[in-house]
Design goal:
single chain; alpha/beta; Rossmann fold; 6-stranded parallel beta sheet; 8 helices; nucleotide-binding; ATP-binding; Primosome assembly protein PriA; DNA-binding; DNA binding
Length: 254
């Protein structure tokens, strides 16, 4: 398992900031010489999160304030209520141009297809989950949990993109969930003796990333449990969340 290290950064100054650093392209190119390559993308769709190009304000629906996303035909629509937004303008600066805050699996497949025009690109996600793919060279772009099994011994390589999107979720279990998703994808790759390679694009110093690189989920779980026990967090304690009107919650707490 590889990640962006100091050596990669020395050769490529933008290695840690780039979505697809030079190391990632090398893993894909080398993997395609020997079989299919799995590309895991945390978000489905084309551009599931958009923002104003000028001021970076998130683009939101005027009806329900949900996030706007780009559809297949390039049109904008709300991800929550589905309302189309044909004439969007930024509520803060009045700008009319958008940029992608997050790149989804469909756009990733499109970009990789342009970069490798002679290679078949297959996608697997919520709307269409593939069970298996042939063992011939191909790019398989999948969201977490929808990764198909590669026939003929597994994938030649796997590229785990946008690690920040999994690790940055506002959830106590974000780190362990990210590690679980990564391990699930990495387990579909051929062993090291057969030349299998896994590359994760995430901050290399973070604990879940280090656990993946060392292939040490047990050690990660032990350290995570000890830390939560010290803080009194689940699973050593139980927590409950109550939602409702302020007066009802106040009455409950009496």
């Amino acid at each position: 398992v590889r990640t962006v290290g100091d050596g990669d950064e020395a050769r490529d100054a933008a290695a840690r900031a780039a979505r697809l650093p030079t190391m990632a392209w090398q893993v894909v190119r080398e993997g395609l010489k020997h079989g299919p390559v799995l590309v895991q993308v945390p978000r489905r769709g084309y551009a599931p999160r958009l923002a104003c190009e000028r001021c970076r304000t998130p683009a939101r629906c005027r009806a329900c304030a949900g996030p706007l996303e780009s559809q297949d035909a390039g049109e904008l629509a709300c991800a929550w209520c589905g309302r189309p937004e044909p004439d969007w303008h930024c509520s803060e600066c009045g700008g009319a141009r958008l940029r992608a805050q997050i790149v989804g699996a469909r756009r990733t497949a499109e970009e990789l297809g342009r970069a490798f025009p002679a290679v078949p690109v297959r996608t697997s996600g919520r709307d269409h989950v593939l069970a298996t793919v042939p063992g011939a060279p191909a790019l398989v772009v999948s969201t977490p949990g929808a990764e198909p099994v590669a026939e003929g011994g597994g994938y030649a390589a796997a590229l785990l993109l946008d690690g920040w999107a999994l690790l940055g979720r506002p959830d106590l279990r974000a780190g362990e969930e990210a590690l679980r998703r990564w391990l699930g994808a990495a387990a579909l790759v051929r062993g090291q003796a057969e030349g299998g390679t896994v590359a994760v694009i995430a901050e290399p110093t973070l604990r879940p990333v280090q656990a993946l690189v060392r292939w040490d989920p047990v050690g990660h779980a032990v350290r995570e449990l000890a830390e939560r026990a010290e803080l009194g967090f689940p699973p050593v304690s139980r927590m409950a969340s109550v939602a409702g009107r302020a007066e009802d919650i106040a009455e409950l707490l009496k």
